[in-house]
Amino acid sequence: MVLACRTTDAAAPPRPRRRARCGASSPPALTPTRRARRTAENPSSSPSRARDDGEVANDVRRIRPEEGDTLKTLRLAALCDAPDAFSQTLAAVRRKTDADWARDAARYASALTDACFLAEDGSQIIAMGGVFVADGHGELVAMWTRPDARRHGAAQRIIDAVAAWCCQAGLSELRTGVVNGNAAATTLYERAGFVPTGEVRPLADGRRLEVRLSRSLA
After folding, report:
1. Does residue 12 sit within a domain?
2. Sequential DSSP letters for 115-126
3. For the chain: N or C, fewer Cβ within 10 A?
4. Which residues form the domain of 118?
5. 3-state DSSP assignment of residue 171
6. CATH code, 175
7. Nearest-CA neighbor of 189 among 169, 211, 218, 167?
8. Number of domains comprising the chain
């Protein structure tokens, strides 16, 4: 199983929007177990944007194998905040067991075909995004930024980290999808260098359409 949804979102669609009942008005703050460190899977550097040599911002890191609970909390928070921005439903995610989340985190931490990146601000995790390899390209998925941390560059830094990971994997293209009408996400991706492919496809629920976007990494 890959990261939950192909339709991505770094900021919730413009109001009004439907909100899921999640028992809390805002997603919880998350505290990382320790600061980011250099590894072969997660190179970091001081610039805030990805560099040609594959280095990424030092406040963005790859998820760690033991962070299944963190992954679970982030995904539930994202779906509570913006249920219509993702193809996977809150109900489906809630059915996953702790063992499922632990396996996902372990895979995203080290796999050559899947990864999940987290953005930190001090002691808190404020954004996430995932990627998997599909048909010779990278697929950017599960993008989300905490509402109180939006429009400060966290989503862009996640995208840069994903692009760097794709370059290291020898991929020359990064694709993603946006639910039709999600102007905030569309603007984010266009600023990050994505362009529409012209492809529009229905989501599994049969009521929404996904607009496909692509960014060259060559």
Report:
1. no
2. EEEEEEETTEEE
3. C
4. 44-216
5. coil
6. 3.40.630.30
7. 211
8. 1
